[in-house]
Design goal:
There is one protein chain. With about 180 residues, this protein is α+β, with helices and mostly antiparallel strands. It contains three helices and seven strands. Strands 4-5-7-6 form a four-stranded antiparallel beta sheet. A three-stranded antiparallel beta sheet has the order 1-2-3, with helices on one face.
């Protein structure tokens, strides 16, 4: 999803759902919504950024979810794929919060491929698809599905908790192999 107003709405909804769950309450969990940050000085663009730092109670590790759109114009705000987060709409019409699997600090020097995720028993994952006119903007990056935003707040929080737990379990096994 690449419209900043839609991302802002879904991100705020996700934050509100997580904050209804005591595991996501407290100082370890922080959210920053829709803030504009300056891009490179030579560019005529700005970045719109949504950040979540999730450290749920009951898990050893947490997860950072950063989503950035490159604000070029009112009609064109592409996702900055150098950041690990995204909001995606599936073919079933449901909206999801996603987090890239590739994380050099947790997994090692190589990104995980679809066959690695399947073999390691990863939770649900997705590959972002874009209109052909936008080129190969996804670059084959795979994302862990954190939450399905069409569900109840309790279900959203449980999905996110389970996904973060599984992310660390799979990352630990992958680190040992790579």
């Amino acid at each position: 999803m690449e419209a900043s107003s839609e991302v802002d709405t879904w991100f705020r909804m996700w934050r509100e759902a997580l904050q209804t769950d005591e595991r996501f309450q407290g100082a370890g969990n922080r959210f920053r919504t829709g803030s504009k940050v300056e891009a490179e000085p030579a560019e005529e663009t700005r970045l719109v950024e949504w950040r979540a730092l999730l450290r749920p109670k009951g898990l050893r590790g947490g997860l950072d979810v950063d989503i950035k759109l490159v604000d070029k114009s009112a009609s064109y705000t592409p996702l900055d794929r150098n950041n690990p987060g995204a909001v995606g709409v599936a073919s079933d019409g449901c909206t999801y919060i996603l987090r890239q699997w590739y994380d050099s600090k947790r997994i090692g020097p190589k990104p995980l491929k679809a066959e690695d995720l399947t073999r390691l028993g990863a939770p649900e994952w997705a590959d972002l698809e874009f209109a052909a006119s936008k080129g190969n903007v996804g670059r084959g990056r795979l994302y862990c599905v954190l939450s399905r935003l069409n569900d109840s707040p309790a279900a959203i929080a449980q999905q996110c908790f389970d996904a973060i737990s599984a992310f660390h379990r799979v990352s630990e096994v992958a680190r040992e192999e790579f």
